[in-house]
Design a protein that fits this description.
single chain; 12 helices; 0% strand; 2 domains; 326 residues; mainly alpha; Hypothetical protein af1432
């Protein structure tokens, strides 16, 4: 708008000065003439011509100023789009002077940046896919070391994702829960196999070694930026609501929300899976155990969401059985 005002005033001034000078000269010539008409009608006619000419000059100045200012304003708007990550924005101009060259250069720059952005996104996607494939392999390797935990990580990830949606999480927070569930035991790769595969109760010393796996897992993921929130779930999924968990002894709301969700899913799957130290519980018995842990080990809100999710699963199974029977 400032450019438009400046151009308008300069063009108006450039058009008005010659008109004013011509009008003054015409009046002077008519007044000095021996056969000069009456002064009043002359001044009136000259004034009307000056006003008409000035109005025409103002209109032409406005048109020309807008023809210059509008393309520049569109270039500014396009530059703001690029600054906000909307690459590929194009500016359309109808002028033929240097401003058109500016718009053409801007459009070319915008297309190049869009191309670079697409390539960067592709490379980042490939890098993330490579990382995740590696991490999945690690999770599978952990599950494969113990037949009793085979498939455990995948089940925890699936249940944790359902819990997160039940609790209203979405987007990156939902992804963090799903990846945290899949990778929550990845640190067991650093636990000696004799301890990991032991069928009897662990000694206090062995239990201390086993309890290092959340911190080891978080350290494995520490350098992967897009798994930052998932790493919090990995590190703190064995914390307890009452503060008696590990490795950091966090309590209540201090425990990252993603870790509370993954911890609840991990506990439920442990209850309903065959383990060396216990047979698999029925869903009803597992829910009784989870109810006893509410407010002690489990966040009450997460526990209540878990009950709803498990009930919904049970209802879906019943409907499936009824559908098969009919």
């Amino acid at each position: 708008m400032r450019l438009f005002r400046s151009l308008f005033l300069w063009m108006l001034l450039a058009g008005a000065l010659p008109i004013a000078a011509f009008t003054l000269l015409l009046v002077a010539a008519l007044v000095g003439s021996h056969a000069a008409p009456p002064l009043g009608p002359v001044l009136k006619a000259a004034g009307g011509a000056a006003v008409l000419s000035l109005a025409l000059a103002a209109w032409l100045a406005a048109v020309q100023a807008r023809r210059v200012a509008d393309p520049i304003r569109r270039c500014v708007a396009g530059a703001l789009d690029i600054a906000q990550g909307r690459f590929g924005s194009q500016v359309t101009v109808a002028v033929k002077h240097e401003v058109a060259d500016l718009a053409y250069t801007f459009n070319h720059m915008s297309r190049v940046l869009e191309s670079y952005d697409a390539e960067n996104r592709r490379l980042i996607g490939e890098l993330e896919a490579g990382w995740l494939a590696t991490i999945r392999s690690l999770a599978s390797a952990i599950d494969a070391k113990d037949p009793y935990t085979r498939g455990h990580s995948g089940r925890v990830s699936e249940l944790a994702g359902e819990l997160a949606r039940e609790l209203g999480l979405e987007g990156k927070a939902l992804d963090a829960v799903a990846w945290g569930g899949l990778l929550h035991d990845v640190g067991k790769i650093g636990v000696p196999e004799p301890i990991l595969g032991k069928r009897d109760s662990l000694t206090p010393a062995e239990l201390e070694v086993m309890r290092e796996h959340p911190a080891i897992g978080a350290e494995i993921l520490r350098g992967v930026a897009f798994l930052h929130d998932a790493a919090r779930a990995v590190r703190n999924h064995h914390e307890r609501w009452d503060g008696h968990g590990y490795p950091d002894g966090l309590a209540g709301e201090e425990i990252p929300f993603v870790a509370r969700i993954v911890g609840a899913a991990d506990t439920f799957d442990a209850c309903t899976s065959e383990r060396p130290y216990q047979p698999a519980m029925t869903t009803a018995r597992a829910l009784e155990v989870m109810a006893d842990l509410r407010g002690e080990q489990l966040d009450p809100r997460v526990h209540d969401a878990l009950v709803r999710v498990i009930q919904r699963r049970a209802d879906a199974r019943e409907r499936a059985v009824e559908a098969v029977g009919t």
